[in-house]
Amino acid sequence: MSHHRQTRHLLLILLIAFGSGPAAMGQLTKSVRESVDAKSSRPVIDTFVAAQIKNLSSEDAKIQKNARDLLANEASYPTVSSGFLDEYADSLNAAVLPLANSPDFHVRLSAAIAVARVAAKAGNTRLSGATIAFTKDKNPAVALWGLKAAKYILPSMILGLQAPGPMGQAVIDAAKLHSTGAVAEEAYNTLLLQTDAGGLRGFQPAVLKPYLPIPIGLFEYRVKLYEDFAPPQPLADTLACKFFVNVNVWQAMTVPQQRQAQQLMLDLLKGAAKQNAADSKPELVEVIRQTAGAFEVAAGPLKNDPLKKAAHLLSTINNETTAGEIDTRITAVEDAIKSAP
């Protein structure tokens, strides 16, 4: 055997013995990523994922960042197949779950970021387990990235007619546990299906119907807070108002749900007005204006002209409008709702 052949043979033995193939060295091959039937490549995928999960647990911040970038990048190639994404997300979910219990905050955060970035590209529900685990984290930064992952998984659950209850409840629980504006806003973005993939246009009423109690639950929790104080990021609550008057959502709601949504919106108006009277803030005035605008939209399908007029008048308030005048205009909205058949 020649010297060159002996060298090549020795290198091959080392590659096999120490797992230093492409997957172990930090990359998957193009053929694996584009494979229509990726099940046959699962061992290679698992090897790659395991190597990066090990690095996510490193005490070196640079090694952690490199690992989460590598994990995210594999799901981001433009020609990646749906079959690969299915196997890849499933592999990552199984491997990353133990890190949700790591005592090291930085490890949990890096893992949650990696999961969110892959979930944004995967277009499936395979990362549900890990996502729920990170959403339940007691650190708001980790929970925030869990919410970001959930935002991309819930639409696939709903469209795939899978039960979204556990994930939806985890999102609501995160909003209750962490009293930060960022978590509240991301919780709304998640449950109101605010992704970059066309918003609510792809969700028909029949698909939305069984899901709606979940966002109603978050809205109900937030509105009750106004009885005692203005919660962080109050403008986030107007996202719910706009969601419920969206034509697809409105048609999906039962009549009792429509009435519940209207009552919660009315309670939001009263709560925001109460807190604004106690401590005037421009964002609370804007909450009232935007909620009034949502009522004006809802007046259309309700065929309620008095509501439309009253809501429009309320939407014109500004920072100089007196508390008494605001209350008067809110009362007009309430009267228009009560007088409807």
How would you characterize this protein structure?
The chain is mainly α. It has 2 domains: 13-197, Leucine-rich Repeat Variant, CATH 1.25.10; 221-341, no CATH class. 71% of the residues lie in helices and 0% in strands.
Count every beta strand, where a strand is a DSSP E run of 2 or more residues: 0
Mean pLDDT: 91
Question: Helix/strand/pairing class, anyone?
Answer: mainly alpha
Q: Report the major sheet.
A: none
Q: So, CATH architecture of the largest domain? A: Alpha Horseshoe
How much of the residues is beta strand, in percent? Answer: under 5%
* Estimated helix fraction: over 70%
The value of Rg in angstroms is 25 Å
From the spread of the alpha carbons, the general shape counts as elongated
CATH topology-level name of the largest domain: Leucine-rich Repeat Variant
| Beginning-to-end CA distance, first to last residue | 95 Å
Alpha plus pi helix count: 19
H/E series: HHHHHHHHHHHHHHHHHHH
CATH class of the largest domain: Mainly Alpha
Within CATH, the superfamily of the largest domain carries the name Leucine-rich Repeat Variant
How many discrete domains?
2
Write the layout of secondary structure elements.
Blueprint: H1 3-18, H2 22-25, H3 30-33, H4 42-56, H5 61-74, H6 82-96, H7 105-122, H8 128-135, H9 140-159, H10 165-177, H11 181-191, H12 205-208, H13 213-225, H14 236-244, H15 247-252, H16 255-278, H17 282-302, H18 305-314, H19 323-338
Helix pairs in contact: 4-5, 4-6, 5-7, 6-7, 7-9, 8-9, 8-10, 9-10, 9-11, 10-11, 10-13, 11-14, 13-16, 14-17, 16-17, 16-19, 17-18, 18-19
